[in-house]
Design goal:
By secondary structure, the protein is of the alpha+beta class. It folds into 4 domains: about 80 residues, no CATH class; about 180 residues, no CATH class; about 90 residues, OB fold (Dihydrolipoamide Acetyltransferase, E2P), CATH 2.40.50; about 110 residues, Beta Barrel (OB fold (Dihydrolipoamide Acetyltransferase, E2P)), CATH 2.40.50. It is built from 12 helices and 21 strands. Strand 16 and strand 17 form a beta hairpin. It is elongated and about 95 Å long.
């Protein structure tokens, strides 16, 4: 094998021999790192066999002979960086069986077939809006209003691909004898740990170049049952079961996963409350009395939704504020004489012709220019005046308050028609938006207040369920007794972190935090997304 060394053994080896060969490979790779040496992967497979304590028994030699088939594994600086990133997360007695990174560079995936059309429409409309107000006579507030929408549109069309590539460059996979470890994070280090008992059977979809994807659980079409990630937004679209998208050597990673899962199945399964993860064994008495110091944050997908919905919230708040200004305009505005200075017709095959009058008037000691859409009859009145005559004057209803000002022609109809349209829009827009605001702002804030001021008592996990669609939402149901009234309560909460939901066990004891005067308002400490100090 050019530029590398091949090790072939036809006998069983011990842990000491494996350590010797691994050290030999590492030392050789360091000395020859400039040559980008390539090593035979048989030793890595032998490490898998011995690390999982495969006892010498009948058939083991056959397994080893199969395992030592030559496999090319590049030993470059990226390999050692991946090893180092995963090794620092390993616990006592934990052995690393395989490590790697996802595919690198700019790339498209199946979800972009749905996201790209939407993002192009969003970005196109936002740019058209911003260009219109910049070239018009709109106030400064309206010119600044469209900037957040343009920024989000450009991110959805272009920027997210670069952020996604940067994120995947900082993502590392590790397969150990105890769990699957995923280290990621664009701006901060984030470690996701999934024990093999919590993961379903793995399946491999291999490509011709040796790369492929490893899926856990059934593979559903078009990402159903998994979160559709707006690529490149850190933390967005975290799914319950990860998908390992590998550029090469997918078969080796799959073998390591299968060996680890088989080893976990031979161990005693996790059951009841005494063998659950330590994060789920916090008794109520260990929590300090309220008020408590709360820390932690909810899942990244929630923060992406908050960022995405923020311009819509600003538009809704601004719409209501502008509606109040129009009410003042209708009630307190004054009429001023004006003069039509020009007219224009906009032709559209779909919507027909649109007629516009540009007019001038004097108000607040200044000469002001504005425009208005008018009907055909009004347009004709000011289009071609009789010979030797000038256009008749127009009446402008105007109000200016600080940087805000609004004007409209009386000839176009009652000013209250414009107010009525904006009222209907504000009610519809903010009515729909209120559901999102409650889900992503109000509910988490109320839960955080329970962590800070709520009463703690013991409870029991009754059930767990998952709602699937374009994204997956996770829930747990629980029961607890109010220590003050002695009444039993049952409730259900959304679990923001998929890893927590995956490790939940029906029947396990939990700590419930509830409002003293309203026990129906409660949450589960282990699954609410926050932690308390003490």
């Amino acid at each position: 094998m050019p530029g590398g060394r091949a090790f072939h053994h036809d006998v069983l080896i011990t842990d000491i021999e494996v350590i010797f060969y691994v050290r030999l490979i590492d030392e050789f790779a360091v000395k020859k790192s400039q040559r980008q040496s390539v090593f035979n992967g048989c030793i890595q497979r032998l490490v898998l066999a011995t690390a999982l304590n495969a006892s010498p028994q009948k058939g083991s030699t056959t397994f080893i002979r199969k395992a030592i088939q030559p496999i090319q594994i590049p030993m470059d600086p990226v390999y050692f960086q991946t090893q180092a990133e995963i090794q620092r997360e390993l616990g006592s007695g934990e052995k690393l069986l395989w490590s790697g990174q996802p595919r690198q560079g700019l790339r498209l995936n199946i979800t972009d077939a749905f996201i790209l059309p939407f993002s192009l429409i969003w970005c196109g409309f936002a740019i058209f809006w911003e260009a219109s107000v910049l070239h018009g006579h709109a106030p400064l507030l309206m010119k600044l209003w469209g900037v957040p929408f343009v920024v989000i549109g450009l991110y959805l069309v272009v920027g997210r691909f670069f952020v996604d590539a940067y994120t995947r460059g900082r993502t590392f996979y590790g397969v150990t004898n105890q769990r699957l470890v995923i280290v990621s994070g664009s701006f901060s280090r984030r470690v996701r740990s999934l024990p093999w008992q919590a993961l379903p059977e793995a399946t491999l979809v291999e490509r011709g170049n040796g790369g492929g994807t490893i899926n856990f659980g059934p593979k559903l079409p078009f990402g159903m049952g998994r979160s559709v990630s707006i690529g490149g937004m850190p933390g967005a679209g975290q799914s319950l079961f990860p998908v390992l998208d590998l550029p090469e050597h997918a078969r080796e990673a799959y073998d390591a996963v299968r060996l680890a899962q088989q080893s976990a199945q031979r161990e005693e399964p996790m059951a009841g409350g005494d063998q659950t993860s330590p994060r789920f064994t916090t008794p109520a008495k260990s929590l300090p009395p309220p008020p408590r110091r709360v820390y932690g944050r909810l899942g990244g997908s929630l923060w992406f939704t908050r960022i995405f919905i923020m311009p819509h919230m600003l538009a809704g708040i601004g719409g209501v504020g502008y509606l109040f200004f129009l009410l003042l305009w209708g009630l307190l505005g004054a009429d001023y004489p004006g003069t039509v200075v020009s007219s224009k017709v906009w032709h559209s095959a779909k919507h027909g012709d649109t007629y516009t009058l540009n007019y001038r008037f004097e108000a607040d000691g200044e000469t002001r220019l504005d425009s208005a859409k008018v009907s055909w009859s009004v347009y004709q009145t000011y289009l071609n005046p009789a010979f030797g005559q000038t256009n008749p004057p127009v009446t402008v209803h105007y109000l200016g308050v600080g940087p805000l000002h609004h004007a409209a022609l009386r000839e176009t109809g009652s000013p209250w028609s414009e107010i009525g349209f904006l009222t209907l829009w504000a009610v519809f827009w903010n009515g729909v938006l209120s559901f999102f605001v409650y889900a992503i702002w109000v509910k988490p804030i109320r839960a955080r207040l329970l962590y800070k001021n709520g009463e703690a008592t013991a409870g029991k996990l009754l059930r767990k369920r998952m709602s699937t669609g374009k994204s997956s939402t996770y829930y747990v149901g629980y029961r607890f007794k109010d220590p003050y009234s002695g009444q039993d309560y049952e409730s259900e909460i959304q679990v923001w972190k998929a890893d927590d939901w995956a490790q939940a066990v029906e029947g396990q004891p939990v700590t419930v935090l509830f409002a003293k005067g309203n026990p129906k308002r409660s949450t589960v400490y282990e699954f609410g997304g926050y932690r308390v100090e003490g």
